[in-house]
Fold aldehyde dehydrogenase (NAD(+)).
Amino acid sequence: MMKTISEILSALGIPLDKVEGKGLTVTSPVDGETIATVEIAGTEAVDAVIAQSKIAFEAWRAVPAPKRGELVRLFGNKLREHKETLAALVTLECGKIYQEGLGEVQEMIDICDFAVGLSRQLYGLTIASERPGHRMMETWHPLGPVAIISAFNFPVAVWSWNSALALVCGNSVIWKPSEKTPLTAIACQHLFEQSAIEFGEAPEYLSQLVIGTADVGEQLTKDKRIPLVSATGSTAMGRKVGPVVAERFGRTILELGGNNAIIVCPSADIDMALRAIVFGAVGTCGQRCTSTRRLYVHESIYDSVVPALKRAYSSVAIGNPLDEKHLVGPLIDEQAYTQMQNALALSAQQGGKLVGGERVLTDQFPHAFYVQPALVELADAATVQTETFAPILYVQPYTELTDAIARQNDVPQGLSSAIFTTDVREAELFTSAMGSDCGIANVNIGTSGAEIGGAFGGEKETGGGRESGSDAWKAYMRRATNTINYSRELPLAQGIEFNL
Ligand code: NAD
């Protein structure tokens, strides 16, 4: 596996001058060292990108959808070719372990495959008309330039979920990656451009990248030429983006914070539950939108599950994520570490009993932020309302399943949830209308690690957006209802008489 930035960039064929600009300093969370500086897009540059994207859209929308799928197929193949290298870059830039980096690139490949199939299935309905000699149908058309604003923790997959669908739907795309992870974005853009050359018929500027901080994102959200803004990040970000886009009657797909819980019932397969809980809570160092943050364990098994969990926590290998023996890498930066410590201090004030949470490996990595994942046992009634983007798992016992479900739902966010049970009544209740209120409700699977085939997203302060599989593609298109009169009469709907 390649471990240095210069090795990785040269394997991907990216010229070094792209990462030796002035402006944004890129720091690796692995050791806290600077690995690149990249140019930030100014206001005029962003404006030009939007204008170019509009022109590209006007050409691309006329290309038949299955042909558009061919470009995405080529891009998927390019990702297959560079999977290991891109995964190493993901690890180096955002700190997730290499296995998860590989998983993230695989997710990109999967969504490309899905989008290729979809390019022949952008179906509309045919609807019975009430008028003789008439036919009604729905047609789906592309929207225009789609802005994709992404978060640091899935630096490449989120873009691909959006762009693969947006492109087969006939849109152009503009990507504003997290300011913490611009290198992976530069790499993806480079691979996409190579695929576009191979394809031969893509308009110039079909997919573009604008690097910068929140103000670059804000410029995209305000611009009327962009009919759809797909924004992934914190609820605080969505609270700003949503009204700005709505004010100009644009559309959004908001994929925001989660506060995900697992319920462990008395009949659960405990070994399986323990593995799912530990992966969900400590994987990606607790920095997944779907990370497990709360655990409700039935009182009859609480005293065996919690000690077993503590034992599992103490054996998790923490360290350099590029080294495959480690299962937990670093937090993204010092700010994330401070937020974690603040949340732990607050739960201690609320009477929580804490294990873990301390900073580790400071001798080896004095400028990086590795932590022992934390487990906090909370008093009965307490709920945890905010998402702290760090490995903290709050544990509480429960007596009645209905009460556990109510507590699970009693947070502002509604992304992912899970129940571990072998009792069909409990499983069905959890997935029913009286059960979990989240966009994702799993049985005997943890909260994180969704497949691309399903629609991904959550309710309430998670934003309500859906991306990826199922019919999420419809958000990237506009629907037209067409009524076609093939008769020689002009009957009006609802039988209205209007005799001239
Ligand atoms: P963040 O909100 O700090 O930043 C996300 C992106 O939004 C960045 O590109 C940032 O520059 C941009 N941004 C910030 N303010 C903006 C504004 N006013 N206008 C336009 N753009 C703006 O989030 P982060 O720290 O990078 O990521 C972590 C958060 O993302 C967590 O809350 C996590 O749950 C969430 N997340 C959600 C999903 C999901 O699918 N629901 C997926 C991944 C991450």
